Amino acid sequence: MSSRLSHLPSVNQVLLELGDSLSIHERYLKRIINKHIDYYRRKIKSEKFDLNREQLLERIVTRVSLEASPSLVNIINGTGIVLHTGFGRAPFEGKRLRSLARRLDGYVNLEFNLPDGKRGDRQDHIDQHMAAICGSESSMIVNNNAAAVLLSLNTLAAGGDVICSRGQMVEIGGTFRIPDIIDKSNAVLKEVGTTNRTHIPDYKKAITKKTKLLLWVHTSNYVIRGFTKDVSLDELVSLGRAKRIPVMVDLGSGALLSLSEHGLPEELQVRNIVEQGADITTFSGDKLLGGPQSGIIVGSKNFTDKMKQNTLYRTMRCDKITIGLMDEILWTYSETGFSKMNLALNMLTTSRKILKKRANKVISALAKSKIKKLGISVVDSAVEAGSGSLPVKSIASAALKFKPSSVKVSDLSAAFRNGALPVVGYTYKNTFYIDLKAVLPHQIDRLTKAITQV
After folding, report:
1. Domain match, 123 and 242 both
2. Which UniProt keywords are listed (predicted)?
């Protein structure tokens, strides 16, 4: 064993072999090198290992080179889930990113008012644009919807009671739960009703001098059916006005237009919620809206101004890149719909017919031997939007189906993930699929190349 251990190269030997090929901090590079030397040291100690000194050095250099490259890379999303949390949710159109890069080159007027030369407010860059689309008096953007909910609750209800129906005690991915975030906001949750039935008298009985907020949560990621009863937002707003208690709505996904008019399952529109009289409404900016990771707060200017004065706001405010990206996305909307630059909505609304044409284009460009070897065919599929959006009804799509004859499905999946351009699909009943719903149009040729090389 000692002789085999002596074959391990030193850190300096690996550095000499790498030369100037990697632009990375020396301390980090040495940490990566030591990690892989330790890996092979353990491997030599635990099993028979016949690599000589040159082979070991070559393998370590290869592994170090891979790990020392940027880990955040472009991929082909073959899962069919357009708003995939693991892939950054809403995708961006390259032209929009290039447009933003030009605007953000060097310094920007993030918090500077050019007309009068005084300090400005970063929220001004999207405040009235978002507010006009949503029909509200004011708007603001923070890091994500969890931040939007927490900031709103803490500003409006800290030290007091928040009344919410038990049927709206939602949990989303990452164990985000409404009861927990109310607790963190320094407010006290007062649950009313039952899981399946809540009535307006339940709210009335729960109101006391300590009540500071009525909370209405849209159950955007699940549905309760059967013997049910819930309190409409109209009813809750009327009660709030009668008792002079503000009403807040956590909308979740946040659609800015009628999705059913574009062939998708309908979702509550932000503007409709605002028109019903909610004082504050929060929703995600990176789901059905199609923007960057962010949380949007719309409603009363009096309340949003108070939120800007809250100490928590500074920990949640967005940087120039997020604000710039949201500004770009807002320009994709019009009274009648959205432009092609809103990539998320365009992909969600692409028809199965078009997707099958793209799938057949891939098939037609492959060698017959490759099609036979991997057992490739085009099939109809059904997908979800992702990130808890539109959870009830599936969306029509098309996929490439793989039934390989000479390789395990798990190995095929791994080969796609670890290719020059990673392709992530899914496996179902020992069959591998690459769904076309979330494959960008300009990635079709790259997908064809990836299949050829696998």
Report:
1. yes
2. Cytoplasm, Protein biosynthesis, Pyridoxal phosphate, Selenium, Transferase
